[in-house]
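Exercise: predict the structure of this protein bound to zinc ion.
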Amino acid sequence: MIARCVLDRLVGQKKAAGYLKKSVREGTIAHAYLFVGPPGTGKKSAAKAFACAIMCGDDGCGACSACNRIKKGVHPDVQVWEPEGTASYLLDEQIRPLIRDIQLAPVESSRKVYVLAQADLMSDSTANAFLKTLEEPPPGVTIILLAPHFESVLPTIASRCMVVRFSQIAPQTAEAILAEKTGAAPEEAKAALAATGGVLARAVEFLDSSSRREARVRILAILKDLPVYDGFDVLKASKDLLTLVNAPLEEVKIAQAAEVKEREEIFGKSKGKALEIRHKRELTARERESVGEVLSITESWLRDCLALSQHLDDMVVNIDVIDAMYEVAAVITPPAANRALAAVREARRRISYNVSSQMAIDAMLFDIREVLLCPRS
Ligand SMILES: [Zn+2]
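Solution:
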């Protein structure tokens, strides 16, 4: 039973996971935590696993209805909040509704868990409005704040939380841990980490998901064929690609719709509406993650081509498509490769400013095609 807890499956963060598991088993769960660690150290996955351990009733089994719904982001008593857009948490649109929500009784259990990503993006005024709730939430509520560094969080916020540190994992260690945990070959582990921006927990999910691995293969095929595509082909490939990467979200949508229906039947239309808004936010965050994978894979392919052109073969990530990359590397100049990489960064920027993912990917593929058509310039 001991090895089954989802917290034990967190990769590379034994100390943090051990501490959290102990607090659940000993019944010493605090009302507020601050998880600090650089991006990619698995804070959000740890927060979700901790929520499972708190809510499950079977030591965070990872398989029961509660655990499954927490993983999918559709458990009514476990909520993940993110800042809207890129700048900051919004006081009236986010923090005040959050404070009201925290005061409500749990829907189906005796506890509630709130995860606030990027707590470093709280301004003085939002933090001030939130302080009292953070200090004294209703019984049974646990609030978990996530931030890259302890120093990046306002001291008034940080001082009210139990701090849990997540340490940086060196890329080679991450690859080794991933290969050991999943049984993947070293090159598969490397490609999975490249696809997920180096986030170990997401790399584990990536290796576990046939549809996400299929999407990677599709992206790499598109990049190879881009120079022979006409405009229509580019748009079609881009559209098909997004359909493919968003396919796993269909299951989430179905689960969400069922939850809204159930909530409406028990509590009425207005409660259903509030839930719908929350679901929409969660879905947007997941869509961004999926599109982020498309961008990361594209970026790693371009970097590989650049590395091969400089005869740095050891640095190559996407070894399974090395032959196709050799062809590009034979002709591409560093300035041309950098222009293509700039197109990826531009797509990332556009998406962060709420441009539709489809438009951002369309534009990126057109820009990369242009570079691949004149790779020596
Ligand atoms: Zn469970």
